[in-house]
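Write out structure tokens for XRE family transcriptional regulator.
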Amino acid sequence: MPMLNGSVVKHRVAQLGRGRDALRKIAEATDIPYGSLRNAVGGRQELGLPRCYTLAEALELTVREILADPDGVPDLPPEQPKRPKSPPKRQDKEQDRKGPRRNTVGVR
């Protein structure tokens, strides 16, 4: 799923002059949930390709203009978890358990 070029989308929304809640109005017009659109414009979430086409049509832009350019650099693969080199240490050792201190005052 592609990432949006948030600055292009914000600039175009401002150019269209849809008022204070412009992004919310665009979301309603395109049937894209407002939270998803806000996150996509902010760069926190990817937007599906069909929604990108719908958004581009509403903003009167091409899809290529609203998508972020990855500069030909592929995404890094996700980092795989590493296995521990040795078994985990026991948490419950008998030697470490200590009871309350004895009262030794006056005892002989």
